[in-house]
Amino acid sequence: MNTGDSKQRKLLWGSVAVVALVVIATLIDKGSIGLQLILSGLTVGSIYALVAMGFSIIYSSTRVINFAQGGFSMLGGMLMYSLAVSGKLPMWLAFILAVLIVTALGAGFERVVIRPMKDHSVITVIIVTIGLSIFMTAVAKWIWGTDPVKIASFSGDKPLRLFGASLVPQSLWVFGLTLVAVALVFLFFNRTLLGKGMRAAADNPDAASLVGVSSSTSSLVAWTLAAGLGAAAGVVIAPINFAQYSAGTALGLKGFSAAVLGGLGSAPGAVVGGLVLGVLETITAGYLPSGYKDAVAFVILILVLLVRPQGLLGRPEEVKV
Amino acid sequence: MVVGAFILLIPLWAKFIPGDVLHMDIVNLMVLTGVYACAVVGLNLLVGYAGQISLGHAAFFGIGAYTTAILCTHMHWFPTWLGVIAGAVLAGAVGWLVGKPVLRLKGNYLAMATLGLGEIAFILFQQVKGLTGGTVGILDIPPLSIFGLKFDTDLKFFFLIWVVILVLLLVSINLIKSRVGRGLRALHSSEVAADAMGVATGRYKAQVFVLSAAFAGLGGAMFAHFQKYINPESFTLALSILFITMVVVGGMGNIWGGLVGVVILTFLPSVIQALPQWIPGLPHGLSNFSNYELVLYGALLILFMMFMPKGVAFGLSRAADYTEVRARHFRDRQKARKMEGR
């Protein structure tokens, strides 16, 4: 796999160079407004990265694209509203509780709905996750209504000045949380027996199950992790974007595009994909009518699929005859 | 045959039931069913027979709808039937253009790419305001008329759309039975093997993709003339997902099953809404179902997939087998008991 690795590295650095060029061009062209665009792009991108990691983790251990992934983020945001604003709990406690509740829900879904479907075709399971997504959205609409709700920032709203651009303090929380979450996921997959086992199972499920990696446990852990990551993303972005029952779909689609861009099934790829997508999106919004901003994700999605379906950091799928 | 007769006679028997008994407009829903069925019959060929997943067929449905709507509202002399044909042809042409590169992808990756295409089409419907009217869409689309025959009521449209469906079904069934159909099925079970046996897999896939896109375009164009207005909200990812769900709920690779899926999923929301009114004396809080209509819809979708993963058609035939086996078992036991008694 040496040649593959070096080619992969070349492609990775090539795309990093392209993105860097775009960023530099924007900075030269727009100055501090350009910096502003990039900072907000990185903020959104971090959220995409967290959602994309959820997609990737579930995909690599079950081969299922989880259309309910955005719903976890939406639920996280709405629960944060209930606990912190309506329930008047301290922010940190509300945060932890919201994430824990959604994580438990994710685990529950896996046991009750996904697990019994393990022998069915992928498209059937995908439709089940679509059903889950509709279900979650509908329950949220029922509980919280249709109006978007505002949640206070974790530490005030006084923007920080940075070379003429301003940065809301909540963005720092987003960056911080993303860093911590990414670090934890990496530690889990590289340092713990269970995580290593799951990576082995993603590589070769049959061989892994022969040496005692339980596919049932892998699937459960994957869904739990993905739900937790999604919820954390939803909670931390809520003060910037408002929380609303319908927020899950758009976030899910963007996170999904980010995951494909980075390479579906690759956790580092998800992070790179999320950040790149976020930055390119906001830069596009700076130059084109904002309605086209949402098209960026999908144009990138299709280009990546046509040129390099395995994404920036993913490995090509083996074709078995 | 029985089912066909039943469907064609719906306007007759539906008329005898006063509107406030069922709390839904059956003829209207059946027209909608027919419009969706155009897309689903084609999609079933693609998904069920050729084994290629598309999560973007709302785009073709939308292209068909916008084509005829733009032609017939910008140029008032433009014959509406030609608009419908133009819609189907343009949808097919777009299908041909995007199908070539996209169909090189397989399985999940094809699903993602078609999902992306669908989203891009949706954004274009919203943003190319000069042609599509942006988020407001296009209003006052003239009713469909063919050689002076105006299809301006639900009932007239009902007969038209089901004749169209009949034609599409005949085309599909002939296709399945032809050389192409056998090739497609071979392709579905193993693309490599089919390739090795000399099936032109790439060409067949592209052809059936174009056909399914044109069917969807036809459905979309009919939809535009039936509704008389369109806007981008009608052609979102939700519609693409609805189409594929109809295929799967009905039964992949089963043309008739696909139709059953369309009927079930088109009627389900209305049935859920009407349900509390069928039960007399329900407290008011419970009878306002609009709150949890979607909750039930999502839950039912999950349950369908969990208990009838191969589709309703297959599930029902299996249930019938099961009851038959049980009945035979029961008869045998009774016979045995009689023998004992003697």
Description:
- The complex is a heterodimer of chains A (321) and B (342).
- Chain A has a single domain (30-307), classed as ABC transporter involved in vitamin B12 uptake, BtuC (Orthogonal Bundle).
- Chain A has 12 helices and 2 strands; from the N terminus they run H-H-H-H-H-E-E-H-H-H-H-H-H-H.
- Chain A has helices at residues 2-30, 32-62, 69-86, 91-114, 122-144, 169-191, 193-203, 205-210, 215-241, 247-262, 267-287, 293-307; strands spanning 160-162, 165-167.
- In chain A, strand 1 and strand 2 (165-167) form a beta hairpin.
- The radius of gyration of chain A is 19 Å and the shape is globular.
- In chain B, a hairpin with a 2-residue loop joins strand 1 and strand 2 (149-151).
- The model of chain B has no long low-confidence stretch (mean pLDDT 82).
- A two-stranded antiparallel sheet of chain B has the order 1-2.
- By secondary structure, chain B is mostly helical.
- Chain B is built from 17 helices and 2 strands.
- The interface between A and B is large, with 47 and 44 residues.
